[in-house]
Records
---
Amino acid sequence: MKIPDLKSQYVWVTVALLAYIIPGVMPLGTGFPMSDTTMEIYDIVKNLPEGSICAIGGSGVFAFDLESSAGTIPALKIMAENGVRIINVPLGTEAVQYEKFLIDASRIEKKYGGTHEYGTDWIQFPYIPGGSSGLVAFLDDIHAACPVDVYGTPLDELPLGQELTNWEDIDLWICPHWGFPTIVQYVTGERGIISISFAQSGAYSTYSPYMMSYPGQVYMTNGFLGGAQMERLVGMKGLGHAAIDAYQVLSILFVVFVALGNATAFTTEEEE
Amino acid sequence: MGATLTYIRLNLSRLLIIIGALAALGTWYLSVPMVDSVFKELNAWQVNISSFTLFTGLITISMRYLRAIQKRDSDVWYFEAYALVLIYVWIILGFAVGMYSDLYQTAYLSTKITLHIAILGQIIFFYTSGAYRTFRIRTLRTAALAISAVLIVALNAPWVQNPFPAASNLAMWLLNNPQMAASRTVVITGGIGSIVLGLRVILGLEKGAQRITEGE
């Protein structure tokens, strides 16, 4: 018996229906295992002393970086609860908008009923051009590299800005962007600041050896799964959980379609 | 281009490259405050020049598109007109309401970001139908391709990882060893190529990079 070849449109409709629409309307609540690294990251973020400063920055493209937001939003919630202060350091042109999205989505600001007040508890820097050169300039002398915040307010007029001098004031660096190697090299490698990347799965598969190069200093979570793990530790269901639902179905569909394709090829050859 | 100008361009750019490279290398190997200061100063210049290139890009793209719109000899001139209008609308909006305002953010999220995410999301449809059509095991090579793709997808999936927690270790082993070995080959090759290219530029052998061949 010959199994007929499926038109691409049938594959697309099946994927849209089973992997996107149904899990979108009715969340499946897919279970997933916890990772030791995510637990370590959670402990690091949770145990930051009150008043310490965490830099959130790097460079990347917003649409790709959205995957990293699944882990970063829970981390922001933990830090806000513990009184950790935040400085956003965008090294890419879209990073400013993305970092605003993170602050808005985590609802940590006072205007959303949160704990953090702009200027005192957190600051958004403007886009710092120059890639790694810009990052080094920022780490060496924050006021010289970035004398104003994103609104154009001089750092000296912001209570948190007055406390910032150089990299020695930063206790932790979180990179919610694709460009993690720059952070590893200049923030952790040269200055010894612990860095965490809520990495996209593509970035994780490429950059995860940095965790072996800098044990106890560089940490990464794996894509939406890592984000979902962070969400579970904080007790929330966000983008990570939704994406895991979709991936659960899609991974089954992928295997089924590859098997079906091979069955079609096998029966066609047999008949010929 | 005159011979004198060619000579100046060649040696000036070579001098700048050598000073920049030595200053950056010097801070890595030497703990001399003077070297550190020189590097910091040059680095600040570099950051400023990077900011300036944004304007250069804007001017270049505007001139190019305006010329195309005036001549209308290209099939895509109306797309270029559309792009040009959008560029300036976004610039004016950013200046008028501030790039960090809620209005700008909402406009940005509702258009550019949503569309970009939709484009990325579409890939999975083509990926799945492509896998259905191409991962058909006929030879050893297609078997290796199909089995590794299915393994990576399945080993990272909760329906495999939940009953078999060791599956994630196997997935990581595949990513950290065979995959990483191949991708590092590409990175190392590129790195060595960059060093060779850098040396050729400094020694004046890579004339094309310094645009000094125009006068020849």
---
Amino acid sequence: MRIEWMNGVNATVPDLAVAQDISRRNFMKVSGVLGGGLVLGFFIPGANKFANAQAAKAPTIYAPNAFLRIAPDNTVTVAVNRLEFGQGVNTSLPMLIAEELDADWSQVRSELAPAADAYKDPAFGIQITGGSGSIKHSYMQYREIGARARAMLVSAAAQQWGVPSEKCKTAKGMITGPSGQKLSYGSVADAAMKLPVPEKVTLKDPKQFHIIGKPTPRLDARVKSTGKQQFGIDNHMAGMKVAVVARPTVFGAKVAKFDASKAKAIKGVIDVLEVPTDRGGSGVVVIATGYWPAKQGRDALLIEWDSSAAEKVSSDLQLVDYKELARQPGTVAKDADISKLASAPKKITADYEFPYLAHAPMEPLNCVVDLKTDGCTVWAGSQFQTIDQGAIARTAGLKPEQVTLHTMMAGGGFGRRAVPTSDYIVEAVNVAKAYMASGKSGPVKVMWSREDDIKGGYYRPAYVHRAEIGLDEKGNILAWNHTIVGQSILTGTPFESMLVKNGIDSTTIEGMGEPYRVSMKLSVHNTKQNVPVLWWRSVGSTHNAFVMETLIDEAAQVAGIDPVAYRKQLIGKDHPRHFAALDLAVEKSGYGKKALPAGHAWGVAVHESFDTVVAYVVEASVENGVPKLHRVTGGVNCNRAINPMSIEAQAQGAILMGLGMTLPGAAITLKNGVVEQQNFSDYTVARMPDMPTVEIHIVPSDDAPTGMGEPGLPPLAPAFANAIAKLTGKRLRKLPFDLANA
Amino acid sequence: MVTLNINGHDTQVDADPSTPILWALRDNLNMTGTKFGCGAALCGACTVHLNGQPTRSCVTPISAAIGQKITTIEAMESDKVGKVVQDAWVKHDVPQCGYCQSGQVMSATALLKSNKNPSDADIDSAMSGNICRCGTYQRIRAAIKDASKAIA
């Protein structure tokens, strides 16, 4: 997700004054880049095991700060201040520390950090994994941590030898003294821990990098290939019960009455209780010894719902309304002179339709809550630890410091685990509260079925766009009137005051217009509908890039100019990264040079999101009346590449997800408030035969790195549509693609 | 009490005979390598081998496995083909979130046991029931081809 307003705000920089009031022994020495100098974090009781290890003064563990432990066997364990859910941060962030630390990469491990102030994103000021910001915001932070730890280790060794630190060298986890004496990091870790954290450290000249920039296999590749990786859903602890919730069939509806007699008769069912659910609704939870009896119990419930107060959305009617709204001017987001539109000799008028989309991560949502009267411990694959920790505390009636939130390895997320309402976590705490109120105790794992996930809301909003573009005889764009209709993601959330401006949600319009020099008037109707919506990998660019890149392609066609050349005419010289990405994709693909098989065509698109520019040249055909994507050549401009192997993986993944948006059945629809899809049988996701051959090329750069989690997605679908237009003459303006009715 | 043969060992499971193999493994035996993805044989995350055949454990009741041989991801490191597949997975850096990969490895291993030299079409056909949302399909394909060479 993009949260521009937070960038650089440092809203909750750890308060040094507060920190210094805390007794010395509870300090963790936390180095960071906040404010450019040394920042001390402070110990949060029970909040993280790095802190606990330090507080207990475990003699064998070196914890110079919250991010690093060096064991006597020289193993370096790096705390990752993000959620790992596929994007590779639990390898790429340790690479940054290991580089400056001069660690032996084969001895580096990683661990996901729990919720704690020390792990807040240095730019966003909250603990969050989003906005493709992990590398972008922690690049300097993690390098400096590594450099500080290295300096402390060298000082400890130098003191032991009685030599100046400057005479010592480091490599692969070893310190070498002036006369060739050697000490391992692990052997001086204890002594180094007692030294002050240096305020100033010198970082390496990037020319010296031997870990950063090197294609590096994931630290978790083996455990994830052998079934040994523990995810949140795999949590298994003594006395733990499993809960499944029957949620309202219409968002926000309530239980009128229910009959639990059949459910309670099922072996293994322990309790059946009414619980509050998201959006002011209520539901019924079945708590059992395992998932199967809980699910059987839920299936046996007889529930009468009261949905009288809930708005019952129907997608077909919504589309009619949205299309009507799109013909009326909305709230102006970007103003421009469009007076030449009426008299323009050539015109493009286009209506676009985008459905709701579910994230459908492979690991169904789950959350373990162990609630006690004086504290609450939660295990969840959270993308939003600070917000979730606060929501847990409010729901449980506790203080945030009484809440321990463990970040669990997550089986995908794509935005679904960063929820401003903390919906599934709050619900799980409510289940634990009801369980406690019924006189029982112990951890409860709330699990979602796939049907719960597909029907459970928090979708990428449905959108309609309408564009009217006036062009001159040569195909130059004279004026562009554009309207977007769709729900706001952020209205009604804590982010509203900062991210919704003049009634316009900034996530609705991100990616519109830029980088093209066109006179575009952009207006928005942010609608209110009773459907929970959320960011979905690349957020606004999921639809805006499609609209922009297919319309620019169409304008090129009107102009009779090659679509790459047309784009380059229209992109300002102040966007050299766009040119670099586009040129690289064009060159490596053989676009315009290589002969394609009969019935195949090229398609091109380029888009910037989250400060990374990605260009795709694709090769597509139509097979049995259905668009087929064969090959994608990508030019990626994410500045300095930290782990090229991971960048390639992220682009491949984003390509597959972008392709998934185009496949028949990739849509969530509602009828009278009820979601019509339920599982992978009727909500299409891309499968092995859909996967094109992907070749990714990275623009070389020494600039500070930008993220790769999301930017690979936006240009895929428009490049594909542009190829189909070239083949068939039909402009696909609806996702998922429906060529027969285009 | 139901007796199941899991990874070569007879194992007692205290569960209703209608319980899917998946939940007997995960909740009764704490063998969490086999994953829950859809509960309806649509995604392949729960794939185990039943007498060597790739089987969706989320819809196969334990009653149907009595007297049969269940093999799970936990046994693959000591399985000749399974180990080769896992090594290829690591070499090609296949996993991203990794959640579907137990099922992918089980399907790929079953494929290579029945077809040592699968074509692209064979791979598509054998693997299309295994969903990966992260988009690791290209690396999976490459890893299967690599593993195929290694066992030839």
